[in-house]
Amino acid sequence: MANEKTSRKAATAAAKVLSNPKSTPAAKSAAGSALTQRGSTEVTGKAAASKAAKVLSSPTASKAAKSAAGSALTQRPSKGRR
């Protein structure tokens, strides 16, 4: 289980993404996930992690969107070894 929490810097970036009307739905999903985890022990769900990965691989995503997506992915539980 991930024990990470969203940093203040990542939370600020996530807030910028959410308030930007040009942000993609995937970026907003990742930002919302990152903000949810700012002060809680919540972890990133599978759907939000998938959207965050999409944001990170996008050449047009903003720096703020990528920061929020990275934060959300960091808080995804690891699969572990099989």
Enumerate the spans where pLDDT stays under 50 for 5 or more consecutive residues.
Answer: none
What portion of residues is helical? 55-70%
Number of helices: 4
User: What integer is the average pLDDT?
Assistant: 87
Number of strands: 0
Counting structural domains, the number is: 1
Please state the CA-atom Rg, rounded to the nearest Å. Answer: 12 Å
Structural class: mainly alpha
Strand content: under 5%
What general outline do the C-alpha atoms trace?
A: globular
First and last CA, distance = 16 Å
Q: What are the secondary-structure elements, in order, as H or E?
A: HHHH
Query: Biggest sheet, open or closed, and with what strands and sense?
Result: none
Explain the overall architecture:
This protein has 82 residues and is an all-alpha fold. The protein has one domain (8-74). Helices cover 59% and strands 0% of the residues. The protein has helices at 8-19, 25-36, 46-57, 63-74. α3 runs antiparallel to α4. The longest helix has 12 residues, at 8-19. It is globular and about 35 Å long. The model has no long low-confidence stretch (mean pLDDT 87).
At a glance:
The protein has 82 residues and is mostly helical. The protein is 59% helix and 0% strand. The protein has helices at residues 8-19, 25-36, 46-57, 63-74.
